[in-house]
Design a protein that fits this description.
heterodimer; A: mainly alpha; two-stranded antiparallel ribbon; 9 helices; 2 strands; B: alpha+beta; 5-stranded antiparallel beta sheet
Chain lengths: 210, 195
């Protein structure tokens, strides 16, 4: 039961960008399209789950004075693993996410979870926590991406899953509206990201108040 | 004292393990990364500047050492075993970093077949418009490899991108360098086996 709670809290109660308001930098920069948002979310989920599990597994032998250094080494290792794998097997994603993949190291979510959760809890709980928060982050970024892409360009880029490594090619662009639709370009630019995020944050706290 | 030793040991162990893992990872991804970079960055540019070819460009590529020690990778396009054109990369300093272009040269007529932009980080909407057709098409007019390119502001023939003279100059400079490289090494380029 506790496991399930730790998993689901990341999906709604503590959904990272909207409720915890953490990890906003990639949430703003990598949500230009559904493809980008989904890819960024999956990359972060992988790092978060791996670092959470590893840190909670060795939490008893980490001396508290060097714990931050150890956390950073572990998180950075997984981030480089993700970066290299994306370059090798999902090159179009590296092109669009750019520097934000290596920047996961300084994203507050993995380090924050290490300090607040996995250094104090068991492996199974940490796994559930990481998976929940990671999926919550993925959902949020995908949602933001869909919103911004559909109204900003009129298209939706869907990963090309007809071929086995779905991310190793340019995404399919599917037209959502008829030709008469004039895209609201503002949404694909940085200020548009702020507006979208702000509106969602407002709606979330409105719902949460009830 | 015990605590200090424990700190040292744990941190060293963690770092060593992570280093080992990354080294291993690097070894696995080295080949796929090179392939992906070729497929997504170079192949489109190569297709643009080379004529129809029936060989495997990656297998047939060869390198030529430049005078300053850098290696230039040359991609030969063959038809029926005979090299008809070559393409290689050349770079110049642009406005927002190095501009890398792919230059295609017809071996029989010694003319420029065209250019493709491999990598650029110029200002979006200004210099970055070098990837668009109107600018690149200016170089598709069968210029002999002895010509020297310059933008109109410098007394040349090339229309610079408006508001991006530095970026346009970079492209011209990169082509001029490429021509010089081609002329210096033309015997080796035409007969890659005879080293």
């Amino acid at each position: 039961m506790r496991l399930w709670n730790e998993f689901t809290k990341g999906l709604w109660k503590e959904i990272p960008p909207f409720r915890l308001v953490l990890g906003l930098c990639p949430a703003l920069a990598c949500s230009k399209s559904m493809f980008d948002g989904f890819g960024m979310g999956l990359a972060l989920t992988f790092v978060l789950v791996c670092s959470n599990v590893l840190i909670s597994a060795i939490r008893k032998i980490i001396p508290s004075k060097v714990r931050i250094a150890v956390f950073i080494v572990i998180v950075a290792t997984f981030v480089i693993v993700v970066e290299m794998s994306l370059k090798a097997w999902a090159y179009p994603l590296t092109l669009s996410l750019g520097v934000f993949i290596p920047l996961i190291v300084v994203n507050c979510i993995p380090l924050g979870r290490a300090e607040a959760f996995s250094s104090k809890n068991g492996v199974a709980l940490s796994f559930a926590d990481g998976l929940g928060l990671g999926l919550g982050y993925t959902l949020s970024l995908t949602f933001l991406g869909i919103l911004r892409e559909i109204f900003g360009t009129g298209y939706l880029s869907v990963p090309n899953i007809a071929f086995s490594p779905g991310f190793n090619m340019e995404p399919n662009k599917i037209a959502v509206f008829s030709d008469a639709f004039l895209p609201f370009n503002f949404l694909t630019m940085a200020p548009g990201a702020f507006v979208c995020l702000g509106v969602i944050l407002g709606l979330m706290s409105l719902i949460g108040k009830k | 004292m015990r605590e200090v030793i424990k700190m040292l040991v744990v941190l060293t162990m963690v770092s060593a393990v992570s280093g080992l893992a990354l080294g291993f990872m690097n070894k696995i991804t080295l080949d796929p990364i090179a392939q992906a970079e070729f497929k997504f960055a170079k192949e489109p540019a190569l297709k643009e500047v080379l004529p129809e070819y029936d060989n495997d460009l990656v297998k047939d590529q060869f390198t030529i050492k430049e005078k300053d020690g850098t290696d230039v990778v040359v991609y030969p396009a063959k038809q029926g075993g005979k090299i008809v054109a070559v393409a290689f990369e050349s770079s110049a300093k642009g406005f927002g970093g190095d501009v890398w272009i792919m230059v295609g040269i017809d071996l029989e007529k010694d003319i420029l077949r065209g250019i493709g932009i491999v990598k650029q980080s110029e200002t979006p909407g200004m210099g970055a418009r070098m990837v668009e057709e109107p600018f690149k098409a200016q170089f598709k007019k069968d210029f002999p490899v002895s010509s020297v390119f310059a933008v109109k502001a410098d007394g040349g023939k090339i229309d610079a991108l408006s508001g991006a003279t530095i970026s346009s100059r970079a492209v011209c400079g990169a082509i001029n360098d490429a021509f010089k490289f081609y002329q210096d090494n033309s015997t080796q380029i035409k007969n890659p086996q005879a080293k």
